[in-house]
């Protein structure tokens, strides 16, 4: 039986005493990915809502030189930044399932893209 001491700090090994590599938490990266999906979906929802309702369209007119597009994109960017900040703070030291985050973000990206596609918006509005 060997009595050699190891250079592995206490608590760094598993139950069998073998060294485990340090694992960085992936929460902040996952937060950025999911926030991008949320921002994309917000852009689609705001574009759809503006197209469906003249009152919402007028509310999104932040700068008349560009029309309602200025409000739609500015509000979507605001939602993206708030989502990113909140998720990054919530998941700061955690590791989350990147598969679930990527699938959710991709689904939101596709939904947001479809909601900005005029034939799809017209289909949803019954035009």
Automatic annotation (TrEMBL):
Bilayer-crossing regions: 30-50, 62-87, 99-117
Alphabetical keyword list: Membrane, Transmembrane, Transmembrane helix
Protein name, per record: Uncharacterized protein
Annotated source species: Limobrevibacterium gyesilva
């Amino acid at each position: 039986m060997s009595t050699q001491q190891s250079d592995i700090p206490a608590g760094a090994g598993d139950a069998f005493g073998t060294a485990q590599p340090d694992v960085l938490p992936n929460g902040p990266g996952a937060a950025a990915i999911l926030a991008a999906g949320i921002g994309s979906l917000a852009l689609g929802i705001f574009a759809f809502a503006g197209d469906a309702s003249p009152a919402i369209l007028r509310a999104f007119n932040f700068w008349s030189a560009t029309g309602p597009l200025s409000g739609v994109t500015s509000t979507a960017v605001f939602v993206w930044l708030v989502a990113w900040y909140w998720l990054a703070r919530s998941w700061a030291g955690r590791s989350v399932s990147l598969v679930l985050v990527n699938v959710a973000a991709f689904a939101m990206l596709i939904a947001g893209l479809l909601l900005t596609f005029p034939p799809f918006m017209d289909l949803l509005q019954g035009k």
